[in-house]
Amino acid sequence: MLTAVFRGHEQFVALAVVLSCAAGVVTFAAARRRQGPPVAWGLWGACTTATLALTLWSTGDGGEAASCTVNLDVFEPFRQTQGLLNFGMLVPFGLLGVLATGRPVLTAGLGLLLPAAIETVQALAPIGRACDTSDLVSNGLGALLGTAVGTVLAKFGRGTPLSPGVTRKALLGGGAAAAVMAALLFSTTEFTVVSRTVNAVPATAEQQAAIDGRLRAAFGGAYRADDHSVTLGEDGTGTVTAFFGVGSAELSWPDQAEFTASMPPADVAPGAAFAVPGTTRRPATGPDAVRIAEAYGGRYAPGWLKNAKVQVSRSGPEAGLGWRVRWRRWEGEVLLPGGLDVLVDSAGRISELTERTAVDSARADADG
C-alpha cells in the first residue's frame, strides 16, 4: 500500500530522509552540549521531522482549506490498514520522547499536541491534505502507547530528566499552542460530522477469491495481492479493492461487471508496469501499440478481441503516458456494452487495464 501511496514521489521521499537525518544530527549535537542522552534526542528529532514530512507534504492539487471531518466512529481507524499505519507512526515519537526528556507527562502532552497541530495545518493550509479526527485519534493513541513503553524502558536506563522549570515552560507553551489552534479551527473551519468516513471493510474470502482470480487471469499470475478491502453502499453494491505492491485493482461487486488494474507507467516508475511476454520493442506509433496490446489480448484475454473493432489514441498529459487501445463490439450502428481497454506505456508495457462486461452477462456468468 505504501508503494501505491508514494509512487511517483521518490524525490520527496529522498528529501524527507535527508531532512530527518539532518534534524537527528542537529538534535544529537545539541543534546551533547547539554549533557543529555544524545542518541535518544537525535533519534527523537529525526522521528519528529519524518512524521511532519510524511503528514504535511503537499499532494500538489491544492485541495480545499478550512474544512475538517469529525468522525463519530472512533474505532474506525483500527479497522483499516491506513489507520493502523497512522497509529504505528507515532509510537516511536512517544517512546523516544520519554527516553530523551525523562518526562512521561510532557511527552504524552506533546504526543497529543503534535497530531492536533498536523490536523490543524491540514485543515487550514491548501496543501491537498484532509483534516480528519480519525487521524488525530490513531496518531494520539499511538503516541500514548509509545510513551507508556518508553516509561517502562526508562526505568532501566540512565539519563538526566529535563529540569522542572523547563518542563513547566514546555507544558505551558504547549497549552498556549493548543488554545491558539482551537481558536483558529473553530473560527475559520467548517466541520462535517459523519457516522464514519469510509465504508471500506476487510473483504470476505469470496470477494478476495473473486478479485484475485481476475488479477491472476489478467496478468498470468505475475502479481499477488497482499491487501484487500471492500466499499459497499446502502444497496449492497460497491467495489472490492486489492493492492499488489506496485499497483492496485478494483472489481465491481456483486455483479463483477467491471475489473480495473493500474500500475505506474514508464515515465513515473520505469519497469513497474506489466511486460507482455515476447514483446521487447518500444512503441513509436499507434500501430506499434496496437500490436503490443493484441499480443497481450491474444495471450490473456482472447475473448475480448473476437469480432471487436480496435481503436487507438494517445493518452495522458500531453499524450506522454502512451497509447490507449480499446476493443468494442458493434451490432450495425449500435455500440454494444462492455469492452476491453489497455494503456500501453512508452516502454511497451501494460500500465492500465479495464474490462467492462454487460451487467446481465456478468450476473449470468456468476449464476452459471
From TrEMBL:
- Annotated membrane-spanning segments are 12-31, 38-57, 83-101
Ranges for domain VanZ-like come to 75-149
Q: Which organism is it from?
A: Streptomyces paromomycinus
Is Transmembrane helix there in the keyword field? yes
Q: What is this protein called?
A: VanZ-like domain-containing protein
- Pfam families from the entry? VanZ (PF04892)
Q: Does the keyword Ribosomal protein apply?
A: no
Keywords in alphabetical order: Membrane, Transmembrane, Transmembrane helix
